[in-house]
Design brief:
single chain, 9 helices, 0% strand
């Protein structure tokens, strides 16, 4: 085994470890409790508690998907509902229009992953970019409808920053949601852009628990990108070796 192979094996071991699961959940919960964010109440709803619990379960969903464990998609279905309510009450006026797409996408991922015994990531292809185009059109349209009260008025100047960052985030989210069933390894590179934008969005919305979560996600997405490509390359080499041995 070469030095590079040992290094990649170590990254995979760390990325797929239970210890990293614990670190991720601990970060978001500790950040919320330390800042008192869990005490936040808006319109009678315990938004702080919902955010903290939702961030913890969302973290576990992402960590399991990172390890190509389909339970992550199942948890993602449930956390999408919670996150939609939290985002809406924190100022995302289009949340109730956009999150159903994520909900359906998680259901599709769960169904398709169940049918795959060997969950081997794949390279980008034309289908990925077609799905991404559809995702961005949906993102802009649904957010515009939501931020204009179903087209009853123009965009509020005070909402412009939220509208543009939310639309960009939704575009990447929909792209990931529509493409996750096919397990593209390079999706994690696109998720890095999502993580940066979500950090900015949650700073705007004042969601402390989610800010901490997305800082962790920056590291998780980088490691996941490396590991998924490692698994993909190994799967491509194995059939070649099998053919060589059979001759």
């Amino acid at each position: 085994m070469t030095q590079r192979q040992r290094y990649l094996a170590w990254i995979q071991k760390v990325t797929e470890s239970i210890a990293m699961d614990v670190v991720g959940v601990t970060i978001v919960v500790t950040a919320s409790l330390a800042m008192g964010y869990h005490l936040t109440v808006i319109n009678g709803l315990p938004i702080g508690v919902m955010s903290t619990v939702g961030a913890a379960f969302s973290m576990m969903a992402t960590r399991l998907v990172t390890k190509r464990n389909n339970t992550g998609n199942l948890i993602g279905i449930l956390t999408t509902v919670n996150t939609a309510f939290v985002d809406y009450y924190l100022g995302n006026q289009a949340a109730m229009l956009t999150y159903p797409i994520s909900f359906l996408g998680n259901m599709l991922s769960y169904a398709m992953w169940r049918r795959r015994k060997e969950r081997t990531p794949r390279k980008l292809d034309s289908i990925y970019f077609i799905n991404t185009g559809i995702a961005c059109i949906l993102a802009f349209g649904l957010n515009y409808v939501g931020f204009t009260d179903f087209l009853s008025r123009g965009l509020n100047p005070d909402d412009m920053a939220k509208f543009y960052v939310t639309t960009a985030i939704t575009c990447i989210t929909f792209s990931g949601t529509l493409n996750m069933p096919r397990m593209y390894a390079d999706s994690w590179a696109f998720w890095q852009g999502y993580n940066v934008l979500k950090l900015y969005q949650n700073v705007l919305f004042g969601n402390v628990a989610y800010v901490a979560k997305y800082i962790f996600y920056l590291f998780n997405a980088l490691f996941a990108w490396i590991v998924w490509h490692k698994v993909r390359r190994e799967a491509e080499v194995e059939p070649i070796n099998d053919q060589s041995l059979s001759k």
